[in-house]
Input
Amino acid sequence: MARSDGTEVTVRNLRVYISGRPILKGINLRATPGSILAIMGPSGSGKSTLIRVINRLIDLNPSATVEGEVYIGGLNVLSADPYDVRRLTAMVFQEPNPFPHLSIFDNVAIGPKLHGLAKSRADLEEIVRWALEKSQLWEEVKDRLADYPHQLSGGQRQRLSLARALALKPKVLLLDEPTANIDPVSTRKIEESLREIARDLMTTVIIVTHTPQQAARIADYIAVLYNGELVEYGPAREVILYPKNEFTKKILEGVI
Amino acid sequence: MYRLRRLKSQLFTALSIAVAILVFATIAHILLSVAVNGVGVIASAGIDFFVKPPPPPGAGLEGGIGPALAGTIILVALSAVLGVPLAVLTAVFLAEFPHSRFSRLVKLFTNSLLEIPTVLVGMLVYVTLVTSTGSYSILAGAVALSIVLLPYTSTYVERALEMVPATYKEAGYSIGLKKAQVVWYVTSRIARRGIAAGILIGLAKAAGETAPLLFTLGGALYSYPTSPASLLEPGNAIPLLIFTLTLAPYENWHSVAWGAALILTLMVLGLIIAVRLVVREVKV
Output
């Protein structure tokens, strides 16, 4: 597996067509280790498609065609085995989706277990605890690890999904509007977790978000997509305070 | 206007309830008839009903359905071994590769198998297996039943797998699981109740079929399967026994047929209840 030490995500001239219709029209951007990149834009602008190219989940859509270049470090994402790509990445989805048939413990443990990351039961327990702590869920579930996800609140379920992703210690963490449908307390906890993960683990975090406020709170860089095109990209402060593009202004004002 | 709408609505509700009652009454009538006619026969024969062969024609009720009961259990088990893995794998293939040309062909094949009269399956096995081995056999019967259960189980299991929300599959892939791992550790576990139901429906179908056994099993009335070699010898099954006994002009055989029908009904019901109790539903 070709892999370099760096885990920077580089996207060059990325074009995606779904059933022949262009969804992304020549995107160029970079996300660097230890930082959070927020991708913003109105519905249908191609945000989710972009992160699904980075972990090759786009392959699940048989009518999608992808052109261009995507690299994670030295790994050529589009020509690599998708399973190798997904060993470097992990994803949190818009709807909390912990596996309903697995206990809280097993939801977090399944990845490390199947990828052989734990040599013993003690190792596995350590990883599960670490991931649940990082996602700020440990204190709430430490006495009920055998419970099932349906016994948790929506926000807790989403933090469990985050823990499942973190348990693999991914180099790149992708999040597709992870706080769109959950309570403010869980939103705050997830945002704190993301900052900590980026800072302490040097993970490259890419988050799709609908809300400018969230981008302002956590992002180091912001990319704005509109109608499949990258209309603005730069340090978060600059994009928020001095947006150059008309669409960016409208998105920041909440008009679109 | 409102009155007319309300009247229509009430009429429709009444019609729906009437149809539901009609269906329920039909099923209740069948079950009650089987129970009323069967219980007496089983009670008078006692434990012999389950172990002894049928009484001689025209004699009393001192006999039972022993060979056919043993035959049904062996046939269902054997057809499960032969048919269920194939049916489940077919379902997984159809659910995971729904757009491939080959899966469309497989789907056409399973759908056709669902439609064709099961007696033709019996004839097919007769022409291939019975004539080549030179004998009716339990094995030939099991092969025929496994072909019968295949499209039922694969269709139900495929539907159960398709009903698993895509987001869980995506979650599986997103943590680096391979396709087989996603099927094994995620979708099949979430769909376990539907899969169990699909297997059960196939087995219930196999347990209750008569036509595929007409040219394959041999309908041995008095001999028991005693060793693995018996699989290559003629056997019997409860539905085939009921068919044989009912066609004969003997009152005592008709009575035994009612008892056999009750046992068959209870076996199928027992399977359904067991699965409902054993396989927990996954709460999403």
